[in-house]
Amino acid sequence: MAEEDHAQVWFPAPVAYAVGFALGWGVDRLIPWRIPSDPATWGLGGLCLAAGAVLAAWALGAFRRAGTSPDPPRPVRRLVTDGPYRYSRHPQYVALALTYLGAGIVLRAAGPLVLLPIVLAVVARDVAAPEEAYLERRFGSAYALYRRRVPQWWGRPRAG
Length: 160
Hints:
The protein is mainly alpha-helical.
């Protein structure tokens, strides 16, 4: 494969989530909006963190079973469509969002939560879109069909 055979992503998605969280944390230090601390809040935050970890492990396992890399700067050998990729074209980014959300809730920091929609928009435009363009170039009609069947973030697969 050619050296340029990879998604043209300028920064990895985890960096976008980390920067967004850090900026939100800073805003939260200046304007402390506190999320209530009660068992339900802790449970919701813990559930989001656990779901994020499980989904991330499931997604990485699907890549490992396919014998290809989930790392955007590396070439993709196979189109991964099983495991969580049956429900989302980007389950790893859903996992990061759940982890981000859970951390904000557990830390009772509203600042990061306020910035989460911006982080998701940046990831969609600057990470997911270039990855999808690469996958369409790399796998052609197979990826186009997959893209029609499976939602970008999460949902039930569509027929045909």
